[in-house]
Write a structure and sequence with these properties.
The protein has 122 residues and is mainly β. The chain has no helices and eleven strands. Strands 2, 4, 5, 6, 9, 10 and 11 form a seven-stranded mixed sheet that branches. Strands 1-3-8-7 form a four-stranded antiparallel sheet, with no helix packed on it.
């Protein structure tokens, strides 16, 4: 059973920085990609950043509003992904969820962490 544990959330003032961590347990199947999603007002989860973690693949994508301010990193040895956030804005406030997509012979399986709160005050 794959489990994702997030940490690093908290309250900061606008312009500050935070680094989120997501530790994932090992899976019997290879990980296709991991990423971070933000759930703000309206309960809609929006992709903030994700990175392909398959062998020999290092493709990274960012949401337009965070591009240039955020960076997603991965530590394959520890099976941990990080989201470095700088110059935080109030609009960045929300619950951040770690997502992992695992390849499966039948169908890809999606796992979600419980989420960590990020609050940015003006």
């Amino acid at each position: 059973q794959v489990q994702l544990v997030e940490s690093g959330g908290g309250s900061v003032q606008a312009g500050g920085s935070l680094t989120l961590s997501c530790a994932a347990s090992k899976s019997d199947f290879p990980t296709e990609r991991m990423g971070w999603y933000r759930q703000g007002p309206g309960n809609q989860r929006i992709m903030v950043a994700h990175v392909s973690t398959a062998e020999g693949v290092g493709i990274v994508q960012y949401e337009n509003t965070v591009r240039g301010r955020c960076k997603i990193l991965r530590d394959t040895a520890k099976n941990v992904v990080y989201l470095q956030m700088n110059a935080l804005k109030v609009e960045d406030t929300g619950v951040y969820f770690c997502k992992m997509v695992v390849s499966h012979p039948i169908q890809d399986v999606i796992y979600w962490g419980p989420g960590t709160q990020v609050t940015v005050s003006a």
